Amino acid sequence: MIDLEQKKLRAAIIGPGNIGIDLMMKIRRSENLELVMMAGVVAASEGLRMAKEFGIATSAESINGVLAYHATNKIDFVFDATGAKPHTMHAPLLKEAGIFAIDLTPAAVGPYMVPAVNMEQHINECNVNMVTCGGQATVPIVYAINRVAAVEYAEIVATLSSLSAGPGTRQNIDEFTQTTRDALVKVGGAKKAKAIIILNPAEPPIMMRNTIYTKCDTSKIESIVDSVQAMVADLRQYVPGYHLKVQPYADGDRVVTMVEVEGRGDYLPKYSGNLDIITSAAVAVAEHYAKLKSGEVTK
Question: Where is the active site (predicted)?
């Protein structure tokens, strides 16, 4: 049970890579969250070194280190920033320990969570999946279009700088496309969908861009534009660098639009909007969870 008297909820991160470090920076400025633990498998990793400097407990025993810490120092929730396969092993252990899991891998053990679309629907689950960076960027747009014009088919192309795609992203390409596609249907509302990821080696590095194609009733383009613009405003509440690069327009029987994501630069370069959007979305979920448990907000 959550101690309602404590000011902040206590968090741990598994996976001290780029995503884990960026999460750490975001959590450190939160008024509702306290990072008490970071775990990985390499004791000399940059993430664990930085966490130690901040006075945060660390472990090179991954999930075992988190569970050992939790046994004597309660953890309220864990951000899992490892990979799809490790999370499938972590999820049942965290559930058994009564720790809320926010999964930043494409494992999709828990329901898909896209804050601007379905935050309230799944906030009381024991495990939520943050889909993928491409999913966080494009599912809201498909959802916004579908709420005014039924989407028969959605196809998204996520283009990101090769430099912002670390080992985790590269090792999970198949899971990325499958999970993003599934979320476009299950959360976005499209009847069918396809997701494509492109790693662009251009110098200087490009910002993350996502092109969204939707087959729908294009005669409703004015309502579609209004709906998409409203969704972008909602997203910018937790991802300030999210904006429309190309406003929705009709092209035959489809609507085309493009969004660009610039990162905040908390730890990662600003061109790494693909990583920033998923860490920002994960922290938005944790913040809302903490406010619910404290009674600051209600469902």
Answer: 133
What 8-state DSSP symbol labels residue 261?
Answer: E
Determine the pLDDT at residue 121: 93
In the chain, ranges of CATH 3.40.50.720 domains: 9-130+277-294
Architecture category of domain 9-130+277-294 in CATH: 3-Layer(aba) Sandwich (3.40)
Q: pLDDT tens digit string along 166-222? A: 777 787 788 889 999 999 999 999 999 999 999 999 999 999 999 999 999 999 999
Residue appearing with tokens 């080992």: 167
Neighbours of 121 (CB within 10 A): 15
Could you tell me which residues are annotated as the binding site for NAD(+)?
Answer: 164-172, 274
Q: What is the pLDDT of residue 4?
A: 42
Residues of the chain with pLDDT under 70: 1-6, 299
- CATH 3.30.360.10 in the chain, residue ranges: 133-271
Per residue in 13-28, pLDDT (tens digit) is: 999 999 999 999 999 9
Active site residues: 133
Does residue 135 contact residue 208 with C-beta atoms inside 8 Å? no
- pTM for this prediction: 0.93
- The answer to whether domain 133-271 has CATH 3.30.360.10 is yes
For 76-116, the DSSP string reads -EEEE-S-HHHHHHHHHHHHHHT-EEEE-STT--S-B--HH
Place of tokens 């049970």: 1
State the DSSP string of 157-203.
EEEEEGGG--HHHHHTHHHHHHHHHHHHHHTT--SEEEEEEEEE--S
Report how far apart, in Å, the C-alpha atoms of 142 and of each of 149, 237, 242 are: 10, 19, 15
